[in-house]
Amino acid sequence: MINIISTTISIMALMLGACTFDKNPEAIKSTGTFNDKSEIEILRFPENGEDTLKTSYFADTVLYVPLETNINSFIKSLEQVWMNDSIIIINDRFKLLMFSCKGKFLKQIGNRGKGPGEHGLIFNFDVIQDTIYVTSSGKKSWIKYALNGTFCKEIPFKISPLQFSSTLNGELTRYHREYGKIYIHGKDMNVTDTIVVEHGVTIGRFKYGINNNFLVYFQKTSSGLLFNNYLSDTIWNISHGKKKPAFILGLGMKDKLLPRDKHIEFSKGDYKRWEKTAKRYQMVHLVPFPSRMFVFQKYWCEESYSSIYIQNVQTKEIKKYNTSYIYEDIVGCLELSKFIFSNSLDYLIGKITPLELQDFLRSNKEKASPQWLDQMKNVDKNDNPILVLIKIKQSP
Q1: H or E segment at 100?
Q2: CA 328 to CA 202: how far, in whole Å?
Q3: Are 231 and 198 within 8 A, CB to CB?
Q4: Nearest-CA neighbor of 81 among 101, 63, 54?
Q5: Between the N and C ends of the chain, which has fewer C-beta atoms within 10 Å?
């Protein structure tokens, strides 16, 4: 798990006919938004919760998208998903693959190699308007492609930008973990602003990294871009070239976070000892939607979620669910335990493997809808993963 780095209550919708898919509490007012004029929201997490979380509680539609499998579209590891109303782009570290919203394979974007427009292992990608930006091993640059897959150009850089995203107005934001800073790049790609997100960065921490898909530093929302460095109790809004506290992890969470002096760069290379220490502490990731906010919580060094929280954005009530999965009770009636933190402002995106599907069908298929069973009947155990697009209700 530890590596040294250099570097988704309508049954009809199932058939995919449509693809539209100072921290003093006394001085702080909770508002539920985090635009330029918003104030900080302190999140107070309940200690007790329910044992089952069903999709019907917060969603009205669930779409299953089997991604077409052939020699050119095979996915080794589903790392990243970007989607709009018509296409889905998948990063599997080795390839960047484009599918239709129904899962039909369309094309591969770029090829492996060291030449112009080629890439190594893909670190990250994002789409701004009609342009795809990619960073990879072996390239100290952003590689630009058009949405049709055509190579545009490479933008040279001093280092390979590992963690980056884009703001609502199309500016690229790059997190330089080694410096504890975020750099904002304008349309000409020059740095327009620098945001210090961590002071006193440890010398040499660039040698250490954690291969964990939970560690998504940037999270897009309908109101702006959030940044979480998993080091403090503050989730920042960095939408306008400066950081503003958007959320503070308060009661029931703050004391469970991994202390700064117990992070991996202080392990002196003894990773097993670090894991024993770190796995007692929590990692927290926020996924805000207009009507609800999801908070996924897990222990460091563990794969499964320990709890899932849902906040009603209007009332501010937070409910806790003592579960490692969400029970999809609308269409498939199965347990979803793998979610991808993506760019989507409408869908919570989950995934299942064909083997997980077949295990479920052997003993539980009487629970699922006939339409869903018909759609899943041709999925083979060696096929690509199946995306599960859970559309969040517009109002709580």
Answers
A1: strand 96-100
A2: 43
A3: yes
A4: 101
A5: N
Contact 184, 195 (CB under 8 A): yes
Report CA 294 to chain centroid distance, whole Å: 12
Residue corresponding to tokens 């954005």? 313
Please give the structure tokens belonging to residue 232: 């403090």
Q: For the chain, list the domains and their CATH numbers.
A: 2-392 (2.120.10.30)
Give the residue, 360 or 28, on which the prediction is more confident: 360
pLDDT at 212: 79
CB atoms within 10 A of CB 146: 12
Instruction: Tell me 37's DSSP state.
Output: T
pTM, entire model: 0.88
- The residue whose two tokens read 């000409």 is 188
For residues 159 and 326, what is the distance between their CA atoms, to the nearest angstrom?
39
DSSP class of residue 120 equals: S
- The answer to whether residue 111 scores a pLDDT higher than 60 is yes
pLDDT at res. 38? 54
| DSSP SS3 for 105 | strand
Which tokens belong to 362? Answer: 């052997």
Whole-angstrom distance, CA of residue 338 vs CA of residue 352 = 7
Question: Quick check: 167 and 225 in contact, CB under 8 A?
Answer: yes
* Token reading at 238: 């960095």
pLDDT, one tens digit per residue, over 44-54 is 999 999 999 99
